[in-house]
Amino acid sequence: MLVKKLAADVSAYDGKQVVLQGWVRTNRKGKNIGFLVINDGSCFANAQVVYSAEQDGFDEIAKITLGSAVEVTGTFKATPDGKQPFEIQAEKVEVLGMCDHDYPLQKKRHSFEYMREIPHIRPRANTYYAVFRLRSVLSMAIHTFFQERGFVYVHTPVITGNDAEGAGECFTVTTRSDDHYEKDFFGKHAQLTVSGQLHVEPFALTYRNVYTFGPTFRAENSNTTRHASEFWMIEPELAFADLDDDMDCIEEMMKFCIRYCLEHCPEEFAFFEKMIDHDCVKRIQKVADSHFQRMTYTEAIEHLLKAKDQFENQDIFWGMDLQSEHERYICEKIVDGPVFLIDYPKDIKAFYMRVNDDQKTVAACDLLVPYVGELVGGSQREERYDVLEQRMKDMGMNQDILQWYLDLRRFGGCKHSGFGLGFDRMLMYMSGIQNIRDVEPYPRTPRNLIF
Amino acid sequence: MLVKKLAADVSAYDGKQVVLQGWVRTNRKGKNIGFLVINDGSCFANAQVVYSAEQDGFDEIAKITLGSAVEVTGTFKATPDGKQPFEIQAEKVEVLGMCDHDYPLQKKRHSFEYMREIPHIRPRANTYYAVFRLRSVLSMAIHTFFQERGFVYVHTPVITGNDAEGAGECFTVTTRSDDHYEKDFFGKHAQLTVSGQLHVEPFALTYRNVYTFGPTFRAENSNTTRHASEFWMIEPELAFADLDDDMDCIEEMMKFCIRYCLEHCPEEFAFFEKMIDHDCVKRIQKVADSHFQRMTYTEAIEHLLKAKDQFENQDIFWGMDLQSEHERYICEKIVDGPVFLIDYPKDIKAFYMRVNDDQKTVAACDLLVPYVGELVGGSQREERYDVLEQRMKDMGMNQDILQWYLDLRRFGGCKHSGFGLGFDRMLMYMSGIQNIRDVEPYPRTPRNLIF
């Protein structure tokens, strides 16, 4: 019997005998009565088990340590006037696995840093217990959103030979201990993917609407709270769609995911609100209820110039890359809500973004949201062979390696658009968790590879 | 307007004006009339567009090449007596992207080998077009099955430092071109994961029921039709569950996935039946309707000994690893349906499998199905610290690296079980496709890394 099931229908189980398995969260013993709080993994809530001095083995039950696995047989009792909605009057408590006394998770608050050293144990601590369930639910929200709309899920490859894009530093994948890659497993240099976008575009030009959802990698030696070497990305791609269609899809997806998670994780969000970030539910609920505004990069620069004095980086000019403080100013002070910045200078954006008629900007969009700044980046893709080829030349890219990608423009190409959502950052945004290391089951960062 | 939507409600659209975008599959011109068959990616079925010599631009439409992207405006016409259920009487056909004449996909049958050279184009060919949609639908079936049952989805890491298991050869992940891994990005040797199981077990000991679904890797230099260097695996793990519970879960999952796919991909399966494997639907339907039997390895060996003469490998003895011909004999000739073989000799199974009371066998199960043999492998995990530690010693494993895994047995350990399903093989099994290279979007195999 699962706690989730019992909690969902307290009156139906009142007075019934139940058998539960779970792990001990606390064990308090008084003179005549003891309380064993167990969690069985099925939901955030615990079950309180009451045992009494009158029953066999009172002292043994009292000795059950924190973290132990137990099986409880007892009578379910609705407690409408109690702090918990129900409790279990124990008849029998069997220890399935006693927890040793050097259990790393004692009944006190541990620091996030300490917890990162014990990724095999920390899911049992409330914060992580809530985060990793939300991670699962948000994954399902993503799949549900796209599949219900007929998008085809594509497993783009993790290992790629496609190192032309140059989006940050890459990990090499090899079976050798030198750089004779021509003799390597694949007969050439191979690396971990930095993005599935180029690989998924051919599928958009087949199925119209597609998405990837998988791990991506960066070998950047940067130790920030927002960067990990391994993280999951969602990269949808839509054929016959321009930048406006792209933004409509982003907006719809964001709202769907927020509502889905609020609906499926009410206890987890109540916990985040209480313990992690008081405003998190209000913040995302507001996003779900907003109309996402749209503003050009050029307009944004004008706003920033007027407010120059407020920034740490005061060197504001057209053509600059916006920093987080600038992005937050735009969405928090100017718009007071989510906003798409569009039409960025082409020199600060990727080669595949469609050049606008002004020849200076590209049809890109970044979704900025209060509290974090950029959350999603998208663009209409350059579908004109000549323009794309010229842009690759201008940027000094190796055309040979991406000839297949160029060829998509010769073989029934059409206007298409797509975007990328960093899954882990979305999770941080929703929960209020400040460090990407605390939303990933086994975070990988420079000089940090535990298990 | 999507073809899928039109096809689903032909009578509602009869006589209405519609606008479609899609890619030209064929274009036949007669003297007074022409037929443009387009596919818009929304479903397997094409839409037939009729254009006539009486309209403007007849000759231009007739010149539209195979593979081109077009937008068609016309009148939808239900054709209950025709070969297709509907057609579009064109008013206007606009070319969005003309396809060049060196288009690699001409109107003839191409070999699978040829197709593998053009992974950016082949999704448009019927076989791949059907396979990759099924791939997406089967993914969703997996997620739906587990999420509906409260399983938590865990993103186990792709990069791991955990090279103790020794399950086949591994890819190194590095930013260096020598083997000074102590100076490497992570400060030690890192590799691509071969299985998420060890990393997911801590989550089962927290959430009770969990699963992974992600890419895994093998650097084995074997060129077979069933091995790829990168493939996706599903690895569920169930706490408080023994081998019987594990098999129940496998059986339920298999049946659910088959029914889900048959329901969501009827056109794709009709195609597979006609063009790839006449028996595929019958075969999987039978599995969905079967009770999965259970037989010990020891019994299986007895059956095989009696039928020895029928095998290529006639060296049958207790303790041997069964080969595909043996597995198929058991499920096809002896059982005539899906069967779990259980209680394998411990010497041919992994260190983490629970040792049975006979001390000779482990609580493992392999699901054998007609036509392919083994499809799923599972086991109850060794939850006894001492037994697990001894087994690791016996197998010469480095205990230091897996001390965290051993410790799970000291910190509230309990009986638990899990299994692994090779996603790509499941897809082969369902579709009848014979080569794993033809069910993966960008297959990676020795000396083969395209894009």
UniProtKB/TrEMBL annotation, chains A, B:
It catalyses: tRNA(Asn) + L-asparagine + ATP = L-asparaginyl-tRNA(Asn) + AMP + diphosphate + H(+). One of its GO terms (biological process) is asparaginyl-tRNA aminoacylation. It is found in: Cytoplasm. It comes from the Bacteria. PROSITE patterns: AA_TRNA_LIGASE_II. InterPro entries: Aa-tRNA-synt_II (IPR004364), aa-tRNA-synth_II (IPR006195), aa-tRNA-synth_II/BPL/LPL (IPR045864), Asn-tRNA-ligase (IPR004522), Asp/Asn-tRNA-synth_IIb (IPR002312), NA-bd_OB-fold (IPR012340), NA-bd_OB_tRNA (IPR004365). One of its GO terms (molecular function) is nucleic acid binding. It holds the Pfam family tRNA-synt_2. Residues 132-441 form the Aminoacyl-transfer RNA synthetases class-II family profile domain. Keywords: Aminoacyl-tRNA synthetase, ATP-binding, Cytoplasm, Ligase, Nucleotide-binding, Protein biosynthesis. One of its GO terms (cellular component) is cytoplasm. Homodimer. Belongs to the class-II aminoacyl-tRNA synthetase family. This is Asparagine--tRNA ligase. It comes from Catenisphaera adipataccumulans.
